[in-house]
Design the sequence.
């Protein structure tokens, strides 16, 4: 007797009586799923590159480090994080001069960075390439 791979119900015919899954070609319950050799879609990988740790990982692992689009977004993300760190260091030095000014600039830079990263990830997900000034051409050379 066959069992539905979706819900585990015993099936006598071609369709599962409980969930309606087509049983033609279905693997028995408990059998391992077939191995998938396909990689994540390029647009999803490009959007995920705007998380810096993931960008570094995508530059190191095989299917993604061959894709020019994913490499571009990974390098642009890394360069953007370097600029962000430098800005944070400069703002940190302003604490010595003016606490209020440094706090205000820190919040503005943080909010601006968040908005920019979300915007770039959204555009990368939609297969649109936004080349930022200065760091964008550097990322294109690296890709």
Sequence:
């Amino acid at each position: 007797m066959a069992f539905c791979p979706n819900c585990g119900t015993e099936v006598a015919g071609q369709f599962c009586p409980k969930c309606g899954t087509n049983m033609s070609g279905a693997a028995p319950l408990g059998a391992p799923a077939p191995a998938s050799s396909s990689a994540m879609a390029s647009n999803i990988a490009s959007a995920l590159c705007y998380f810096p740790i993931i960008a570094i990982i995508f530059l190191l692992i095989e299917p993604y480090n061959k894709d020019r689009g994913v490499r571009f977004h990974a390098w642009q993300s890394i360069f953007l994080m370097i600029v962000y760190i430098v800005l944070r260091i400069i703002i940190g030095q302003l604490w010595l001069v003016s606490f209020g000014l440094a706090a205000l600039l820190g919040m503005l830079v943080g909010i601006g960075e968040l908005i920019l990263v979300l915007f770039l990830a959204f555009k990368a997900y939609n297969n649109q390439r936004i080349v930022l000034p200065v760091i964008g051409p550097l990322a294109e050379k690296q890709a």
Remarks:
- The CA atoms of residues 115 and 124 lie 14 Å apart.
